[in-house]
From TrEMBL:
<dbReference type="InterPro" id="IPR000760">
    <property type="entry name" value="Inositol_monophosphatase-like"/>
</dbReference>
<protein>
    <submittedName>
        <fullName>Inositol monophosphatase family protein</fullName>
    </submittedName>
</protein>
<dbReference type="Pfam" id="PF00459">
    <property type="entry name" value="Inositol_P"/>
</dbReference>
Length: 242
């Protein structure tokens, strides 16, 4: 679809866009899940919302990193998670299984509570348990949030403690690389379930740690080795203003 030409529609900002490919991918995944798992619920970024009769719900991000995808980058993926009973408004429910597929690089990460963390079938070593100051941190914050002290100050407090900062444009791609040890730690605020649960499942299956913290009315999410996650959370909380 991208090779044939796509238009993008703005959702909440210039960089938060959707294309027909996002919607087509979600429709395809929804159809397969309804065929294979008719009693399970489905909750997708582009509007899929099927109530669960089994207590299990699939959370879909058909294209994570749409801005990258639309620009011709390879740093985007399709991601899916399986969660147990939880409300769609819960910030951090349990993730039973996660999968992240980066098609242009031919990489498939899997992991969950009963599924070992793997990349294309090979076991993942997991994130190193090292000090934040020795690690590269992947993160994301939009320019409009940097204008607001309630979000900018916690982000700055954590970012300046890392050895380096990377903003790559796909949270699930980032989290998958945290699970394999390529990225040291990751943090971001206000993640919907489809941006968080697939990567969370894989990181924890690889032996990593995840956490959330409420700061100035925003929920921040972090993943990596235990020491770095603890230090990220502490830095974020140090900028509590209200």
């Amino acid at each position: 679809m991208r090779r044939s030409g796509l238009d993008a529609v703005r959702k909440t900002s210039v960089s938060d866009i959707v294309t027909a490919a996002d919607k087509a991918a979600e429709a395809y995944v929804l159809a397969q899940l309804r065929r294979c798992r008719p009693d399970d619920g489905v909750f997708g970024e582009e509007g899929a919302d099927v109530p669960s009769r089994s207590g299990r719900t699939w959370v879909i991000d058909p294209v994570d990193g749409t801005y990258n995808f639309f620009a011709g980058s390879s740093y985007w993926c399709s991601a899916i998670a399986l969660r147990g009973p939880a409300a769609t408004t819960d910030a951090d429910p349990d993730a039973l299984l996660g999968a992240v597929f980066q098609p242009q690089e031919g990489k498939l990460w899997l992991g969950g509570t009963e599924t070992p963390a793997t990349l294309n079938g090979a076991p993942l070593s997991g994130p190193a348990d090292a000090e934040l100051g020795l690690l590269g941190a992947a993160t994301s914050i939009q320019p409009r949030w940097l204008e607001q002290p309630l979000s900018a100050m916690p982000w700055h407090a954590a970012a300046i403690q890392a050895a380096s900062i990377r903003i790559l444009g796909s949270g699930s791609c980032d989290l998958a690389r945290v699970a394999q040890g390529e990225i040291g730690v990751w943090f971001q605020h206000s993640c919907p379930q489809w941006d968080w649960l697939p990567g969370k499942a894989i990181v924890t299956a690889a032996g990593g740690t995840t956490a959330t913290v409420e700061v100035n009315g925003l929920t921040w999410f972090a993943a990596g080795g235990a020491t770095a996650v603890r230090q990220v959370v502490s830095a974020l909380a140090s900028a509590q203003l209200v």
